[in-house]
Automatic annotation (TrEMBL), chain A:
The chain crosses the membrane at residues 12-31, 37-56, 77-96, 125-145, 200-224, 251-276, 288-303, 315-333. One of its GO terms (cellular component) is membrane. The keyword DNA damage does not apply. It is a multi-pass membrane protein. Belongs to the amino acid-polyamine-organocation (APC) superfamily. Spore germination protein (SGP) (TC 2.A.3.9) family. Keywords: Germination, Membrane, Transmembrane, Transmembrane helix, Transport. Its main location: membrane. Pfam families: Spore_permease. One of its GO terms (biological process) is spore germination. It is found in: Membrane. The keyword Transmembrane helix applies. InterPro entries: Spore_GerAB. This is Uncharacterized protein.
Length: 349, 314
C-alpha cells in the first residue's frame, strides 16, 4: 500500500492521532499528579517532546519496521484502539446516552471507521479538516467560564516536590503518545515538502497550545482537590456553562468529540494498514473487517469503569516503550547497519 | 432525610404548583421515593434553586450535593440557598404565586447578587469552594416574613470547613462581603447620615491590594470609585466638600469592613479567601490549621475612596 502526502496532509493526519483520544481526559491525571506545578511540568515535558520530534525528524529514514517489530506494534495498536473505542463508548454512555446498549455504541463508532478503511486512503487523509471548526468553538465556550477562574490555583509551584515532578512529567508525556505514528507516516511525505524547522515547530506548538490551554483553564476553574473526582474536566466545565440556545453545552461537544474519535480511529487504522500491507497480502478487505471485529470484541469487555480506571492509571507506560524506547532501538539498529527506508523501499519494490 | 419538590403542572386553563414530599436515607433515595408519588419521573435538568434547611447545613454540605455532581443530567447552574426553619414552609408559600418556586427563588438570589448582597455561587462553584482549603463558603440565607408568608433575603450564611456555622450576616453586613469580593459589573450601595443628612452612594468599582505584612498580619487595601446617589439639603458647588465626604465615607466603610471581619474571625470563616492569598504570597503561613491561624490573624483594613460622579445636580 502506498500513499503520498503533502505537508499539510501529513500534519492533518497526525493532529487527531495526538489529540483525538486523550484530549478530554488527560488533564485530570496530569494535574492530580503534578499538583500546582502541573502547568510548568507540562511545559518542560513539551520541550523534551519537541527535542524528540527533532531527533525523529533527523533519523526517520532509519525507522524500518522488521517482522518482529511490526507484529509488536500491531498487537499494541489493536490494544490501543480497543481501549480508545471502549473509553469513548464509556464516556458517551456516561454523559449522553446511558440506556443505549454497548454494542450499538460500538457499531456507531466502528461502522464509519470500517467504511473509511475500506475506501481509498484519501478519505482518511482529508477527513481531519473538520478539526479547525471544532477548536475555535471549543476555545470560545471554555473561555465563557473565565468569570469563575481563580488565578491563584496556578501558584505557588514550589508546593510540588520531586514526586509530583516525576509523576507529572510521566503523565504529561502521555499526552504525546503515538510518537511512533510520526515515524511511520513521515516517509510518505513527498520529498519536496519541508518538515524540519518551522513547520515541525508550528505543529508541535499547536499540539502544545491545545493541551496547555486545557490544562491552564481547568486548573483555573477547579480546586486542586476536585481533580481526584473529575475525570473529564473539560466536559464538566462545558456542562456548567449556561447559554441561551442550549441547556447542555457539553452534549454538543461530546458529539464533536465522538466525531473526532472516529477520525482518530480512521487515521490510526490507516497507520495499521500502512504497516500491515507494506507487503502485498491476500484478502485485504477481509483482514480490515477482521481487525474491526477484534476491536469490537476487546472494546466490549474493556468498557467498564473499573477496567478503564485500572488501565488509565498505568497507561503512561506506552509512551516510553512504544513511543521512545522501541523507535530509538530500531533507529539505532538500522543506523549501525547503514539501512534506510529508501534502501528498504527500493529493495522491496 | 426529607426532601420537597415543587413543580408546575399544566391544567386545562391554568397551571398549578404541585408539591411532593418524600423521605429517604440519601438525596437519591428521597428522589426515588418522591417519584413514586407522581405519575412522572422527576427531571432535575431544569433545577433552578436548591434550598437546604439550616439544620442539615450545620452537618456539612458535601454529602447532600454529591448526587448533583455525579449525574450529568443535573443542572449545575442552580443556586444553593440556606433556609431558616423548615424548607416545606418556603415551598408551601410558593403555591399562591404565579411563578414557579424555583424561578422565584432564583430571581430573588439573582437580584441580590446584582446588588452584591450575596456573592455568586452555583452548585458547581459551591463544590469547588468546598474542596478549596484556602477559602470558605458563604451562601444566601432566606427567611420567611411571618405576616405575609413571603420569603425574603435574610443575609448570608457563613460556613467554616464546609459546615454552616449557624451565624448569619444580615444584608447590611453581607453587602460588605460583596464589596470585599467585588466582581465586575456589580454595584454596592451604602447609606449613612452625613451631618445628620442622608447620604447614599454606589460603589462602582473596587480595586484591591492585599499584602502580608508579617507572619501574623495582613493588610487589605481597597480603592473605591463611588457615585453619590443622594445627599439631600446640601450642595456640592464647593469642591472642598468632596474630599471631606470622601474621608467620611472611607472611615465609615472601614468601620463596616472591620465589623464584618471580626465576625468572620470569630466564626473561623474565611469567606474572603485570605487563605488562598496567603498560600501564594507566604506559603509558610498556610497549613492544615489555617482556620485557627485566620481567627488569630491581625487584619488591617485601609480604604481609599474617590467620588467620580454626583448625579445630574450638584
Amino acid at each position: 500500500m502506498k500513499i503520498s502526502l503533502s505537508r499539510i496532509q501529513f500534519f492533518m493526519l497526525l493532529f487527531p492521532l495526538f489529540t483525538g483520544f486523550v484530549y478530554i481526559s488527560i488533564q485530570s491525571i496530569i494535574i492530580d499528579s503534578g499538583k500546582r506545578a502541573a502547568w510548568l511540568i507540562f511545559i518542560v515535558a513539551s520541550i523534551l517532546v519537541y527535542l524528540l520530534f527533532i531527533l525523529y525528524e533527523k533519523t526517520y529514514k532509519y525507522f524500518i519496521l522488521g517482522k518482529v517489530s511490526s507484529v509488536i506494534y500491531q498487537i499494541y495498536w489493536l490494544f490501543h484502539l480497543s481501549l480508545l473505542v471502549s473509553y469513548t463508548i464509556f464516556v458517551v454512555s456516561t454523559w449522553m446516552s446511558p440506556n443505549t446498549p454497548k454494542y450499538a455504541l460500538l457499531l456507531m463508532l466502528l461502522i464509519p471507521s470500517l467504511y473509511a478503511s475500506l475506501s481509498r486512503a484519501e478519505t482518511a487523509v482529508n477527513i481531519g479538516a473538520i478539526f479547525g471548526t471544532f477548536i475555535i468553538f471549543f476555545i470560545i465556550f471554555i473561555l465563557n467560564a473565565a468569570d469563575d477562574f481563580e488565578y491563584r490555583n496556578l501558584v505557588p509551584t514550589s508546593e510540588s516536590g520531586l514526586k509530583e515532578w516525576i509523576w507529572g512529567l510521566i503523565y504529561s508525556f502521555s499526552a504525546y503518545r503515538n510518537m511512533e505514528c510520526y515515524l511511520i507516516l513521515r516517509k510518505y511525505v513527498m520529498k519536496n515538502e519541508k518538515i524540519a524547522g518551522k513547520p515541525l515547530f508550528y505543529f508541535v506548538f499547536l499540539l502544545f497550545f491545545m493541551y496547555m490551554f486545557s490544562i491552564i483553564t481547568v486548573s483555573l476553574y477547579f480546586s486542586l482537590d476536585e481533580f481526584r473526582f473529575i475525570s473529564e474536566p473539560l466536559l464538566y466545565i462545558l456542562h456548567t456553562q449556561e447559554v441561551t440556545f442550549i441547556k447542555r453545552l457539553d452534549l454538543i461537544f461530546v458529539f464533536f468529540w465522538v466525531l473526532i474519535t472516529i477520525i482518530t480511529i480512521i487515521n490510526f487504522i490507516l497507520v495499521v494498514k500502512l504497516v500491515h500491507f507494506k507487503k502485498k497480502r491476500k484478502y485485504t478487505k477481509m483482514r480490515i473487517v477482521l481487525y474491526h471485529i477484534l476491536i469490537f470484541i476487546f472494546a466490549y469487555y474493556f468498557a467498564n469503569f473499573a477496567d478503564l480506571q485500572w488501565i488509565r492509571v498505568r497507561y503512561w507506560i506506552t509512551f516510553p516503550i512504544f513511543g521512545v524506547l522501541l523507535p530509538i532501538m530500531i533507529i539505532t539498529w538500522n543506523k549501525v547497519r547503514g539501512r534506510t527506508i529508501f534502501d528498504s523501499s527500493n529493495s522491496s519494490s | 432525610m426529607k426532601g420537597i419538590y415543587a413543580y408546575s403542572e399544566a391544567l386545562q386553563d391554568s397551571t398549578e404548583i404541585t408539591v411532593i414530599e418524600a423521605e429517604g436515607k440519601s438525596p437519591r433515595e428521597v428522589r426515588l421515593n418522591a417519584e413514586m408519588k407522581v405519575e412522572q419521573s422527576i427531571d432535575l435538568s431544569m433545577l433552578s434553586a436548591f434550598i437546604l434547611g439550616e439544620d442539615l447545613a450545620t452537618d456539612g454540605l458535601e454529602k447532600y450535593l454529591d448526587v448533583f455532581y455525579r449525574d450529568p443530567y443535573n443542572s449545575l447552574t442552580a443556586f444553593v440557598v440556606i433556609a431558616k426553619g423548615s424548607v416545606k414552609d418556603y415551598i408551601d408559600a410558593s403555591k399562591s404565586w404565579s411563578a414557579e418556586a424555583g424561578e422565584y427563588y432564583s430571581r430573588l438570589i439573582r437580584s441580590a447578587e446584582i446588588l452584591s448582597y450575596v456573592p455568586e455561587y452555583t452548585l458547581q462553584t459551591t463544590g469547588a469552594t468546598l474542596n478549596s482549603k484556602g477559602t470558605d463558603l458563604v451562601l444566601p440565607y432566606i427567611t420567611l416574613d411571618e405576616k405575609q408568608q413571603r420569603p425574603q433575603l435574610g443575609g448570608v450564611a457563613l460556613f467554616s470547613k464546609g459546615k454552616y456555622t449557624g451565624r448569619v450576616l444580615k444584608p447590611d453586613q453581607s453587602k460588605v462581603i460583596g464589596l470585599l469580593l467585588q466582581k465586575k459589573g456589580r454595584k454596592i450601595q451604602f447609606s449613612f447620615f452625613y451631618n445628620n443628612k442622608p447620604l447614599s452612594i454606589t460603589v462602582m468599582d473596587v480595586k484591591k491590594k492585599w499584602k502580608v505584612t508579617s507572619s501574623n498580619s495582613i493588610k487589605l487595601d481597597y480603592d473605591l470609585q463611588m457615585d453619590i446617589q443622594e445627599l439631600s439639603g446640601d450642595n456640592l458647588t464647593d469642591t472642598k466638600k468632596i474630599p471631606e465626604i470622601e474621608k467620611f465615607l472611607e472611615q465609615k466603610i472601614t468601620e463596616e469592613i472591620e465589623k464584618v471581619i471580626t465576625v468572620l474571625q470569630e466564626e473561623k470563616s474565611d469567606v474572603l479567601g485570605v487563605g488562598n492569598f496567603v498560600r501564594v504570597a507566604k506559603p509558610e503561613m498556610f497549613d492544615e490549621n489555617w482556620h485557627e491561624t485566620f481567627a488569630e490573624l491581625d487584619i488591617a483594613v485601609n480604604v481609599k475612596g474617590k467620588i467620580l460622579k454626583v448625579g445630574i445636580i450638584k
